[in-house]
Amino acid sequence: MDKDMLTYLVIGLIIGFIIGSIFISVISPKARKYAKVKQELDQTKDELIAQKQMIAKHFSHSAEILDNMAKEFRRLYQHMAENSNQFMDRENVPTLDFDSDSNENLVEKKEITFDKQPRDYSDNPSGLFKADENKS
User: Fold this and answer.
1) Cα separation of 46 and 40, whole Å?
2) pLDDT at 136
3) What are 32-46's pLDDT values in tens digits?
4) N or C: which end of the chain has fewer CB atoms below 10 A?
5) Cα–Cα distance, 70 to 64 (Å, whole number)
6) Which domain holds residue 64?
7) 3-27 and 29-87 are packed helices; what angle lies between their axes, rounded to 10 degrees?
8) How far is CA 82 from CA 69, 76, 87, 94, 99, in A?
């Protein structure tokens, strides 16, 4: 054998091996199944990333709305505090005095006594458990 022929043989084997491996990987069922599973995995990862972004956007928007609500509530509270003097005189505002003995007298007057214990049932039947005679 000639040296050139041996070189051509080696180059032919290498090219044949490369073409054969590509052909087998494209045609074999395992390779197709692997490619399908890889594609599904990539698609699922993309969906997961999109869902995470959507959730993060939702929570940031919710936080912004709650912040605006808190600001508006503070503004309303300040408005009510500033303008409460216009509608009520300080002299006529009722106050609760917890230290005085007058509260004890009020509690004693409001005691309610029952002559007998109330019943948990009625004398008249409601008809709820009455057998329906028309169902036969």
Assistant:
1) 10
2) 45
3) 888 899 999 999 999
4) C
5) 10
6) 29-75
7) 50
8) 20, 10, 11, 19, 29
pLDDT for the residue 48: 97
Encoded tokens for 70: 């808190």
Q: Which residue has the tokens 């007057």?
A: 109
Residue 47 lies inside a defined structural domain of this protein:
yes
Q: What is the number of structural domains in the chain? A: 1
pLDDT in tens, 99-120: 655 555 555 555 666 677 766 7
> What single letter denotes the amino acid at residue 84?
S
- The widest CA-to-CA distance across the chain, in whole angstroms, is 128
pTM of the predicted protein model: 0.42
pLDDT on residue 105: 54
Structure tokens at 31: 């390779």
Which whole-number Å values give the CA distances from 20 to 14, 33, 54, in the listed order? Answer: 10, 19, 46
